[in-house]
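Q: Hi! First time doing this. I have a protein sequence and I read that you can turn it into a structure. Is that right? Here it is:
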Amino acid sequence: MAGIFDLVRLYQSEWTEVNSRKFTPDECKAVQGASVVASQYGKSVCFLFVNGKRYIPLEPTADVSIGDTLAVDRLEIVALKYSGTNTQQKVTDILRIRVAKDDAAEVTFDNPFGL
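A: Yes, that's right. Below is the predicted 3D structure, encoded as C-alpha cells:
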C-alpha cells in the first residue's frame, strides 16, 4: 500500500557553508544601526545607513528576537552555496548573518557540558 510520501517527489535540499567572516572595521563604521526584523525569510537583520536600509536574512538558529538591536562587530557574514538536487532551485548562492554566541563556555567533545 502506497502512502502519501511515496507519491511526493523527494529533493535533497542542502546548503553548504562556503565561508564566513566578520564585518571589516570600515563596514562597521558605515552601519548606523542593526536590528532584527520579520521578513519573508523568517528573521532578517535591517542594517541602517546614512542613505537607506539593507536587509540580510539571519541564520535560522540565531537566538535573537524581533526588535533586538545587534552590535555589528559581533556579527558574521556567512556565504552558502546550494548543493541539493532540486532542479527548480534558481538561487544557488546566498548570504546569511550569524550572531556571535555570548561568552559562554563552548560545548565540544572534550567539554560536553560547556563547563
